[in-house]
From TrEMBL:
Protein name: cAMP-dependent protein kinase type II regulatory subunit
Keyword Repeat carried by entry: yes
SMART domains: cNMP
GO cellular component terms given for this protein: cAMP-dependent protein kinase complex; cytosol
Keywords noted in UniProt: cAMP, cAMP-binding, Nucleotide-binding, Phosphoprotein, Repeat
Domain annotation Cyclic nucleotide-binding: ranges: 72-189, 192-311
GO molecular function: cAMP binding; cAMP-dependent protein kinase inhibitor activity; protein kinase A catalytic subunit binding
Top-level taxon of the source organism: Eukaryota
SUPFAM superfamilies assigned: cAMP-binding domain-like
Family the UniProt entry places it in: Belongs to the cAMP-dependent kinase regulatory chain family.
InterPro entries: cAMP-dep_PK_reg_su-like, cAMP_dep_PK_reg_su, cNMP-bd_CS, cNMP-bd_dom, cNMP-bd_dom_sf, RmlC-like_jellyroll
């Protein structure tokens, strides 16, 4: 069985935040007791006992506010997010307390609710980063089965939320693995993406963000600035344009089709609105991922746009010129 690994962090299309840094390991260090290989595909322990720490409404609200901008949790669905909130426990710290120490085995992942914390690395404990009342740390040792890469010390009194290692790996790693497999299957059904290599589809699958829309809900609005494109996972989507007599439907899309790419290619506002015909699940690709991940299929996308009936003449011209440029580059 191949060891499975996923890139969830670092500089990339999903954004970046300071993280527990990678540092050189010491050759003489003993092997971590946590250094086993983790294979999410072989892990069928979904029905085992789950950690639940009761919380008041006020505590849960505070925790929700603390985790809402944590990159790790963006791909979780509502049920998984509730499991994360259930599994996290409060940890109050005093100034000068050590939260984690470089070289130790990883036990917990931490989300900051309040307080200032400093990160140090190396034998001389060089200060490399300060967390100021927000952020998270401790994930690298849990993800990659390595000793702690840095020391984190509280500069002030503070409040942390912690999640134990087993729960972290089961929820986050396995959900990321399932997300990749599910989106790979979805992307395999998109004809435009057939020219991508397997690893390119994996990178694209990792970048997609799940979104849901209720029946009748507007997904994108004509005239708005583009923030990304959408691949339909479930349900149907109605594409409509605004005319003098009101909105007119010009296309109806279903699973395996996509929309929203026109504004990304032309760098113009949305040319049409999109509505959920029924309950819809989509995979969302952010603007800053678009060109990096879909550059190889841009010519296919441009040719497909020539069939769009709702673009004005200036956009038609832009599409045609872009197609000619792509064709000349191929030659």
């Amino acid at each position: 069985m191949k060891q499975w690994r996923t890139k969830l962090f670092g500089k990339g299309c999903l954004g970046w935040r300071p993280r527990e840094p990678l540092v050189n390991r010491y050759a003489s260090r003993r092997k971590s007791v946590f250094a086993e290989t983790y294979d999410p595909e072989a892990d069928d322990d979904d029905d085992g006992a789950r950690a639940i720490f009761p919380k008041t409404d006020e505590q849960r609200a505070r925790l929700c506010d603390s985790v809402k901008n944590i990159l790790l949790f963006r791909s979780l669905d509502k049920e998984q997010m509730n499991e994360v909130l259930d599994a996290m426990f409060e940890k109050k710290v005093k100034a000068k307390d050590y939260i984690i120490k470089q070289g130790d085995d990883g036990d917990n992942f931490y989300v900051i609710e309040s307080g200032i914390y400093k990160a140090y690395v190396g034998e001389d404990q060089k200060h490399i980063h300060t967390y100021d009342n927000s952020g998270s740390f401790g994930e690298l040792a849990l993800l990659y089965n390595m000793p702690r890469a840095a020391t984190i010390q509280a500069e002030t009194d503070g409040q942390l939320w912690a999640m134990d290692r087993q729960t972290f790996r089961r929820i986050l790693l396995k959900s990321a693995f399932r997300k990749r497999k599910m989106y790979e299957a979805l992307l395999d059904a998109v004809p435009m993406l057939k020219t991508l290599q397997s690893y390119e589809r994996m990178n694209l699958a990792d970048a997609l963000i799940p979104k849901t829309f209720a029946k009748g809900e507007r997904i994108i609005k004509q005239g708005d600035a583009a923030d990304g494109m959408y691949f339909i996972e479930e349900g149907k989507v109605s594409i409509r344009i605004q005319q003098d007599a009101g909105e007119v439907e010009i296309s109806n899309l279903e699973k395996g089709q996509y929309f929203g790419e026109l504004a990304l290619v032309t760098h113009r506002p949305r040319a049409a609105s999109a509505y959920a015909v029924d309950n819809v699940k989509v995979a969302f690709l952010q603007t800053d991922c678009f060109e990096r991940l879909l550059g190889k299929v841009l010519d296919v996308m441009l040719r497909g746009m020539k069939h769009y009936r709702y673009v004005d003449q200036s956009v038609w011209k832009m599409i045609l010129e872009a197609c000619r440029e792509e064709n000349s580059q191929v030659r």
